[in-house]
Amino acid sequence: MGEKQSLEVEELPKVVVLGLHGSLVSLIPNYSHKFHFLDPKPSGLSLQHFLAVHNHHPSSIPAILCSAPYRVPADVLRLLPSIRLVVTTSAGTDHIDLNECRRRGIQVAAAGGLFSEDVADMAICLLIDVMMKISARDRCLKTQNHSTPWDFHSSKLSGKRIGIIGLGSIGMEVAKRLECFGCTILYHSRFQKKAVSYPFYSSVVELATTCHALVICCALNEQTKHMINREVILALGKEGFIINVGRGGIIDEKQLVKCLMEGELGGVGLDVFENEPHVPKELFTMNNVVMSPHCAVLTTESTMNMCELVVGNLEAFFSNKPLITPVSLAD
């Protein structure tokens, strides 16, 4: 890079990149003429060391671009005293210290409803897979073990009673898809939705008692952490199924594993885990467990749309315009 070009890059707005997935990182060069992206990950250095080595003063950086589950706690925000914006590529914001952002007046932008259709598609795929034992039968054929595909008891989705936990944009997309299977939709949410006719349950335990399966679509917060505990799992029963496309911490993972090992639950489909990227090893050999590594949103179409949204939010911020998808930080 020539001296003139180097000076031009230094004049671009600086954006620290934290924890982006490979498909998103590969698209960053497309926008390097607009922003000076600083990504410490390839160097293997801590953020603080990376900035020091490359002579970037922490006070010169006004924005962070991050992705769940990479955490942006208060100490990271405090390391960058001039931060005024955190943009996350995820719909959820539980990986960001919103209290610190609120205290310092830092704006936050997220994906909004961009991924709702993708996540809903994943939820239905996981539900059909675990109920119909598709992955289990696939493994059986490929490994040619002593079991046969006929040994797996499966269940159809059509006509089942499905409880949706969190009837936001993702939950509504899940409901729309389940209606095509003739399912009866019930739900639990923070508030009853007056605009929908689905039966509302204020108690998750009562909802589980009534349903064949639960689909978790809500956000992770103090109220929803370990909402799906042993009592809920036992209420769902030995023929019941749980699908989680929300956040891993909504389920008490230790109790989930225990109930599966004890035969107290029919099966689970998981795109998220409580301690990502770590997954309980007990789940690896269970034929009634289907897993995906938190990648429901990583479709080609949504990756491109997310890049455009990220750039749009960054451009709006650096132009002193309203963010496209702001996160409310009100108490």
UniProtKB/TrEMBL annotation:
Superkingdom classification of source: Eukaryota
GO biological process annotation, one example: photorespiration
Residue ranges constituting the D-isomer specific 2-hydroxyacid dehydrogenase catalytic domain according to the UniProt record: 66-327
MF term (GO), any: glyoxylate reductase (NADPH) activity
Ranges for domain D-isomer specific 2-hydroxyacid dehydrogenase NAD-binding: 126-296
Xref: Pfam families: 2-Hacid_dh, 2-Hacid_dh_C
The keyword Ribonucleoprotein is annotated on this UniProt entry: no
This protein's UniProt keywords: NAD, NADP, Oxidoreductase
EC assignment: 1.1.1.79
Family membership noted in the UniProt record: Belongs to the D-isomer specific 2-hydroxyacid dehydrogenase family.
Name of the protein this chain belongs to: glyoxylate reductase (NADP(+))
Native organism: Canavalia gladiata (Sword bean)
